[in-house]
Q: What sequence folds into this?
């Protein structure tokens, strides 16, 4: 018997529907359930061939559990080693190298000193920073947001230099991004599952949360294909099995705004019934596919092209 587990927190609608859908298919030798953990021993495998991770970004204990599980062969969705290393600024940097348009973005040191550091810890950092060069690069209006994390927490829209310094003072020890505002005509949120299945959803981030999927943008078939190609390229390089990419169209050009969402919102009440059904069905099919391909003791993780290419280059010099 190959078990598919889903690791989650207070989220209910997606995990419950996912488990029910996998089990309703009655695939011989495949069963799905909510992950149960009563102890974690080093180097000992779990009982799961596949685990879908929806919560370890908030629970370090779960991240450590998943790394051990992956080391012992569990196919963890998403790869916990890459997720631990990933963050939004690196993703933007990578996008510039794979021909994906992104807003002009800079990373800023935290406003307050991190714990257990002093001014001497930053002897390599110029003070003051080249604020003129930074502001000329991004322009205003601009957005400021944490370089890691999600959920629209600590996100600021800034109208001026004065506004920036006032808001930046509120961010304390957070490392922030300052990003050019893309004034868009259309906006899309795109699920990508298994590195091959893409659902492009019209999305209006300026609406209240419960109305953001109520948008009537109607892209042409050619624009849909262009956006799908961008979504797949991003996820192939990052190596995410389950992610969302947000695309803002300015003058017809899709800019990738936010594409580091490895535990994306899949709540029935927010994404809507049709989108919810697609995510549940597609995730169930992919998890079953991964379980059927599972090989005991092997590395069953997905590694992105960035890591694959780096490893291949290293091999050439051995």
A:
């Amino acid at each position: 018997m190959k078990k598919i587990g889903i690791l989650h927190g207070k989220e209910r609608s997606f995990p419950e529907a996912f488990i029910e859908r996998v089990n309703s298919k009655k695939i011989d030798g495949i069963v799905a359930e909510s992950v149960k953990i009563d102890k974690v021993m080093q180097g000992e495998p779990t009982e799961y061939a596949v685990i879908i991770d929806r919560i370890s970004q908030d629970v370090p204990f779960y991240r450590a559990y998943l790394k051990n599980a992956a080391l012992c062969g569990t196919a963890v969705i998403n790869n916990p080693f890459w997720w631990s290393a990933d963050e939004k600024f690196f993703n933007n940097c990578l996008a510039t190298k794979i021909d994906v348009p992104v807003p002009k973005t800079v990373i800023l040191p935290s406003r307050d000193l991190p714990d257990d550091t002093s001014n001497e810890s930053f002897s390599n950092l110029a003070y003051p920073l080249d604020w003129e060069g930074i502001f000329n690069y991004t322009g205003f209006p601009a957005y400021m947001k944490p370089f890691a994390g999600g959920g629209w927490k600590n996100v600021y829209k800034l109208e001026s230099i004065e506004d920036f310094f006032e808001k930046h003072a509120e961010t304390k020890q957070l490392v922030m991004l300052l990003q050019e505002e893309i004034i868009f005509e259309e906006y899309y949120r795109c699920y990508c599952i298994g590195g091959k299945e893409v659902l492009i959803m019209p999305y209006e981030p300026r609406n209240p949360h419960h109305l953001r999927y109520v948008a009537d943008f109607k892209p042409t078939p050619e624009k849909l294909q262009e956006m799908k190609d961008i979504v797949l390229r991003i996820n192939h390089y990052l190596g995410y099995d389950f992610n969302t990419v947000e695309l803002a169209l300015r003058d017809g050009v899709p800019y990738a705004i936010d594409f580091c969402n490895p535990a994306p919102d899949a709540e029935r009440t927010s994404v809507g019934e049709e989108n919810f059904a697609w995510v549940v069905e597609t995730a169930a099919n992919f998890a079953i596919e991964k379980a059927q391909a599972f090989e005991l003791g092997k590395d069953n993780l997905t590694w992105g092209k960035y890591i694959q290419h780096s490893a291949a280059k290293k091999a050439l010099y051995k």
